[in-house]
Please model this.
Amino acid sequence: MTKKSDQHKEGWEYINERLEKSYSLFDLRVDKVKNLRNQREMDMLVVDSKDAANVIALTENDEIIIIEQYRFGTKEWTLEFPGGLVEPGEDVQQACARELMEETGYQASYWTYLGKVPSNPVFINAHIHHFIAKGAVKVEDVSLDDGEQIVVHLFTKAEFLALIKRGGINHPHSLSAIFLSLSNFELNI
Model:
């Protein structure tokens, strides 16, 4: 049985918010809040961003499409699932299909929504939506944004499982997609 903590949640009072700076991918916002537990006011930094979507895409031959992409935050190349930001007015599945096409040149026939998780609830207000797509076929060359360099890889399920076991997939959005796919019994590896 779970032991209850002696602590309880008092909550937060939002006093105001102000836009600190606007960037192309997100806005930087400062929320003035009061901690109702101790009555202290403080500024909390929030990255105000669009939602994103990514996809575990499987080819007609049941290979998993992985992209390798340089990430400036960690200054490392990562192996991850194709995905990106959802544009205003765009459906999340449409965004995911667009990103799959742009980043890999693949188009998929069968789509299943796996769910969404907060991108990083510590200081980002956006969510990442996860899909699995099956029957993907290569239909065109990649069409990358100016800030992207991507290498496309195809892995068998056995190779993919070995990659996970050795820590080769470490992008948190890809890891949450794997978890949701396994918990929904959509990815049988």
Notes: The first helix runs from residue 92 to 104.
